[in-house]
Amino acid sequence: PLTTSATTSATTPTPAAPGVSVATRDVHLAFGSTRVLRGVDLDVAAASTACVIGPSGSGKSTLLRVVNRLLEPDRGDVLLAGRSVLGDNPDHLRQRVGMVFQHFNLFPHKSVRANITLGLTRLKGLSKDEAAERALHHLDRVGLAHKADARPGTLSGGQQQRVAIARALAMEPEVMLFDEATSALDPELVKGVLATMADLAAGGMTMLVVTHEMGFARSVAGQVLFMDHGRVVESGPPEQVFEAPESDRLRQFLSQVL
Ligand code: ADP
Ligand code: MG
After folding, report:
1. Region (Disordered): which ranges (predicted)?
2. Other CB atoms closer than 10 Å to residue 55's CB: what's the count?
3. Of 9, 156, 200, 249, whose CB is crowded by the most CB atoms within 10 A?
4. Separation between Cα atoms, residue 134 and residue 113, nearest integer Å
């Protein structure tokens, strides 16, 4: 790890792309007759972190998928840096918006490094050497440069999730989405992943984080959004949402998770 970090930082001045603002305006989406998103408005300022909390089935994952256009809304708009992205090429948008899932979806038969270089050579057009160098740089950022040659299966779940984060970061996104990134991890592995996410937030990334980790939301989020039945029912700074919830639904939710 010593040599790789020294080499990569000396030769790869890969500044993280500065985070840009994300917003949705009156986003609606139904699966058949099930209205899953029913007018979602959110504003995440550039370089800030918003945490989305809410009961299972409230539409949190669907909302993230609309933001990076894995799903198209029936109505409404998604804006990055104040500009609508719904007319853009979805593949291009997905390079601007990185996403980390509960299950890391790494390719098991490829090395950690190859998991990261694949997108860089195929989508970003980097040469093999450039891609390998950039992969090491981002592995170093998550403390895993020494695992570059390992197969994902030999890593802990927490390490695999940090590789997934490095893979997303290597695409130099302007926004990062996290969908319950620590929910599948053994309890002792959660902290390391949350620390990586907190570092990223402190580094100026814009982050929209669906999480059950209320401690993370309190300490890292500038804004907490409570979703229920496809709407943002309440939002505000963490101290307000956690200490002075206004709606019965939020009070009830908090009494179950805190
Ligand atoms: P959350 O992430 O808050 O648990 P989701 O966004 O995953 O909620 O799901 C919200 C609702 O939409 C749920 O009732 C779920 O069953 C439904 N849903 C999600 N994805 C699909 C789909 N592809 N087809 C049909 N229904 C779906
Ligand atoms: Mg979900």
Report:
1. 1-19
2. 16
3. 200
4. 10
Tell me which of 62, 74, 212, 253 to substitute to probe ligand 1's pocket, judged by most ligand atoms within 8 Å of the beta carbon. 62
Pocket test for ligand 1, best of 24, 27, 28, 31 (most atoms within 8 A of CB): 31
Model confidence at 16, in pLDDT bands (50, 70, 90)? low
pLDDT over threshold 80, residue 24: yes
| Residue pLDDT, tens place only, 130-146 | 999 999 999 999 999 99
Residue 147: partners with Cβ closer than 8 Å, 6 or more residues away: 112, 139, 155, 159, 163
Task: Give me the half-sphere count of Cα atoms (radius 13 Å) on the Cβ side of residue 163.
Answer: 31
Per-residue pLDDT at 110? 98
Whole-model pTM: value is 0.93
